[in-house]
Amino acid sequence: MTTRRTRPAPRPPEGTPPRAELARQARTVLADAVRIAHWAAGAPGPGTTAPLAAHALERAATALELSPAQVRAGWDRARLAGLIELHGDTARPGWRLRAWDRDDSAVLRGWVALFDAWSLVHAAPAGIEAGAVAEAVEAVPQVLSLLQLSAGPVTVPALLDLLGQRVAELHEERCEVPLGPGRPANATTAAGATADRPDPAATTGGTDADLNALLLDWALEGLAAVGALTLGHGHATLTPLGNWAVWVKLEQICVAAQSPAGNIEQSAADMLLGCARLTPGPARDEYRAWLAARTVGSAVAELLAVARGQDALLRGLAFEALRVVGAPAEPEVRAVLAEPSLRPYALLWLAEYEGNDPDDAQDVLSREEATWLWVDTAAAVADHGETGLLVRHLDTAVQGTVPALLDEVRAVGHPRTVQVLVALAAAHPDPALAKAVRRAAFQVHTGGA
Question: What pLDDT is attached to residue 217?
Answer without folding.
Answer: 94
